[in-house]
Amino acid sequence: MKKGNKAPRPHIGALNRNQTPPKQFKVTEKSELLLFLLDKLSPQGRNSIKSLLAHGQVAVDDRVEKLYNHPLKAGQVVTVRKDRTTIAPPLAGIKILYEDDALIVINKDAGLLSIATDKETELTAYRQLTAHVRITNPNNRIFVLHRLDRDTSGVMMFAKSENIQQKMQDNWKDVVKERTYVALVEGLVKKTQGTITSWLKETSTLKMYSSLTPNDGLHAVTHYKVLRANRNYSLVEIQLETGRKNQIRVHMQDIGHPIASDKKYGSKTKPFSRLGLHARVLAFEHPITGKVMRYETDVPKQFMSQFKEDPK
User: Fold this and answer.
1) Can you give the CATH number for the domain in which 245 is found?
2) What is the pLDDT of residues 49-92, one digit of tens each?
3) Which one-letter DSSP state was computed for residue 57?
4) What is the DSSP code string of 59-71?
5) Is 149 one of the annotated active-site residues of the chain?
6) H helices then E strands: how many in the chain?
7) Which of 61, 100, 149, 254 is catalytic?
8) What is the pTM of this model?
């Protein structure tokens, strides 16, 4: 599974550089939150303190608390922040695997856009993570390093500065040590492992295809290995040597085994509503520390469910 430490979510004690330091009070005996604050913040009035609670400016043991009658116990710490805190909504379709000052690594669900296109303004991984990093500083930003298709799930990462983005993208082939996908493809793949090489081009309708002419397009190399198979489907592990748009989807179609539910690239079956493609492993050299970090996720259960009967 994933390796490395997951960064904690910012809490009410996290400060912007321009914010006033919070006040902290230790609870010495049982009480209710509003009564405790009336005592500690005297001569501040009841309505003023209720406003602090309503705007999420009060925390008990680092958890925002808005209930006036929240019970307090001896030993707890109540934090009061003068500045109103911005609480980001819960992340939808995203799990943060790792975060530091340079990077955010996530596991993205199928169905969520990585970043909005010109025609799309809906919720995206990029938009949610931007809100996430702005909890601690409204000027914080994130920067795209690579993308996953909307219906592809799995590990991806974003940079937290333009310098980190540039540094990693300029040396992408050296920085990225491993990109492993799993794909559920149609039919029994008889050759248990192999390499697919072609030159990819794009049509006017934004569909990628392999050119028959050498050096006509972007060189693409995909290595695959069959993990499980039956007469209907094969579960294939895929290592990318190059990272072209829709590369895996085109190459699986090229060998006669399109990805399940991928009608755009030749699939005739739809065992589930999502695309049968998952970015399972991402390993890379950290741009600051130089340490190799590796994140691995589980094969989606929907893929494995196709092999409950008649396994190879």
Assistant:
1) 3.30.2350.10
2) 888 888 778 888 877 888 888 999 999 999 998 776 555 567 89
3) -
4) EETTEE---TT-E
5) yes
6) 7, 17
7) 149
8) 0.71
